[in-house]
Amino acid sequence: MEIVRIPALSDNYIWLVHEPVSGETMVVDPAESAPVLAEAERRGWRIAQIWNTHWHPDHTGGNAAIKAATGARVTGPAAEAARIPTLDRTVGEGDTVRLGAIAATILEVPAHTAGHIAYHFASEHALFIGDTLFAMGCGRLFEGTAAQMHANMNRLSTLPPDTRVYCAHEYTLANGRFAVTAEPDNAAIADRLAAVAAARAAGEATVPTTIALERDTNPFMRAPSAEALAALRLAKDNFRG
Ligand code: ZN
Ligand code: FE
């Protein structure tokens, strides 16, 4: 499986995914259409599918134009179908979706939005997580609770440690600046923040991350309770680093 990171809008990442055996190509959460169509064209890939993690416009804004240009079939969360009018197929917990010869399983991870889903390619150790888990952070609780997000974090922490986590935003530096205040004695967080600051200064991306890295350096994944996660989330929402 080939995975290409396409920066979009101010801080979004769109993931273009190609399965070389079948030649099938899919795009996760197209914030916009133009850079996706250009990248696929450049590589000679025809986009057959669009997979959405949640309804927010910075994840679905390119659906209609990509669909019009390529005939791609759009898959997204059943619980948000009314808010994603371009959907052709709805999915929920435990469903299987295919990209050519490779299968992904749907995980329901509500909290950022009520119907947020993730796409887990277990055989590839790859997870497309949208706005639920970020490098050293988690999504804001717009439509769900800290208890739901805590359950999501616990569940994701049990995936194989080498699972690569494809988040939808470059938020790592801001998250790291908060994380060192949340866990001032955690040397792994301090080390990671320094590395991330250097990478960003050099114009490099810091995503994907891995489950192992998040288990060591993500205060939200490390939160011992829903109450602790709620307090962290509130502090981060008000943090001006
Ligand atoms: Zn979002
Ligand atoms: Fe987003």
What are its keywords?
single chain, 241 residues, alpha/beta, Metallo-beta-lactamase, Chain A, six-stranded mixed beta sheet, 9 helices, 14 strands, 27% strand, globular, binds zinc ion, binds fe (iii) ion
Q: What does this protein look like?
A:
- This protein is an alpha/beta fold and 241 residues long.
- It folds into two domains: 1-91, Ribonuclease Z/Hydroxyacylglutathione hydrolase-like (Metallo-beta-lactamase, Chain A); 103-241, 4-Layer Sandwich (Metallo-beta-lactamase, Chain A), CATH 3.60.15.10.
- Helices cover 34% and strands 27% of the residues.
- The protein has helices at residues 34-43, 57-60, 63-70, 146-157, 172-182, 187-201, 211-217, 219-222, 226-237, and strands at residues 2-8, 12-19, 24-28, 47-51, 73-77, 89-91, 96-99, 102-108, 117-121, 126-130, 133-134, 137-138, 164-167, 209-210.
- A six-stranded mixed β-sheet has the order 1-2-3-4-5-6. Strands 7-8-9-10-13-14 form a six-stranded mixed β-sheet.
- The longest helix has 15 residues, at 187-201.
- The model has no long low-confidence stretch (mean pLDDT 98).
- Fe (iii) ion binds at residues 56, 58-59, 131, 168-169.
- Zinc ion binds next to loops.
Would you kindly provide a brief summary of this structure?
The protein is an alpha/beta fold. It is built from nine helices and 14 strands.
Q: How do the helices and strands line up, and which of them pair or pack?
A:
Elements: E1 2-8, E2 12-19, E3 24-28, H1 34-43, E4 47-51, H2 57-60, H3 63-70, E5 73-77, E6 89-91, E7 96-99, E8 102-108, E9 117-121, E10 126-130, E11 133-134, E12 137-138, H4 146-157, E13 164-167, H5 172-182, H6 187-201, E14 209-210, H7 211-217, H8 219-222, H9 226-237
Zinc ion binds at residues 54, 56, 59, 112, 131.
